[in-house]
Amino acid sequence: MTSTEPVTELDPRFSDPTATATSWARARDGLAAAPLYWLSTVRPDGRPHTTPLIAVWLEGALHFCTGADERKNRNLEGNPHCTLTTGSNELDAGLDLVVEGDAVRVRDEGRLRRIAEAYVAKYGEDWRFSVRDNAFHHGDGGTALVYEVTPRTAFGFAKGTYGQTRWRF
To answer: In this protein, which residues make up the domain named Pyridoxamine 5'-phosphate oxidase N-terminal (predicted)?
Structure first.
């Protein structure tokens, strides 16, 4: 993955007159540091499905894993469009982030090993995975498929001095 600098725009309709656009660097740091994310996918009948999960930012994309029989995986097999969100539950402080893109299954074992190491670096030894057969494997015998979401569009919602920034890639 190569790093791409997006077009950054502040939307004055939803921003304080004194707000400035949030930099992509700040947003990227927020995506990398967040402990928890919410993944939204689309069910086969068109209804939304949202679930919390952990993820890592690596090589210009968010990466998460899921079991093959889980609803989010079944949804993504039929429709890769998704959003990942993270942020702060504070009303007047923080930065909420929304990443829109397509979830693409990661199968390259070299990349999977880098992603697995990123999980350990961020979340600790309880999240150590081995890599084989194009998937993550956990000590308890569980197998997880790994997806990456490269941002197509992202939004930042600054709070305190409210500002809505859009990044287009």
So the answer is: 26-135
CB-CB neighbours of 162 under 10 Å: 13
Q: Residue ranges per domain, the chain? A: 7-168
Question: Does the pLDDT value for residue 136 go beyond 50?
Answer: yes
Q: Write out pLDDT tens, residues 2-47.
A: 457 999 999 999 999 999 999 999 999 999 999 999 999 999 999 9
Burial degree of 126 (CB within 10 A; 0-12, 13-18, 19+):
exposed
- Are the C-beta atoms of residues 47 and 78 closer than 8 Å to each other? no
Backbone angles phi, psi at 129, to 5 degrees: -115, 145
Residue in the block written with tokens 């809505």: 164
Q: Which long-range contacts (CB under 8 A, 24 or more apart) does 120-123 make?
A: 122/54, 122/56, 123/54
Q: pTM here?
A: 0.94
Rounded to the nearest 5°, which phi and psi values hold at 81?
-65, 135
Q: Which of 71, 12, 4, 15 is nearest to 44 (CA)?
A: 71
Could you tell me the CATH superfamily of domain 7-168? Electron Transport, Fmn-binding Protein; Chain A (2.30.110.10)
| pLDDT tens track for 90-100 | 999 999 999 99
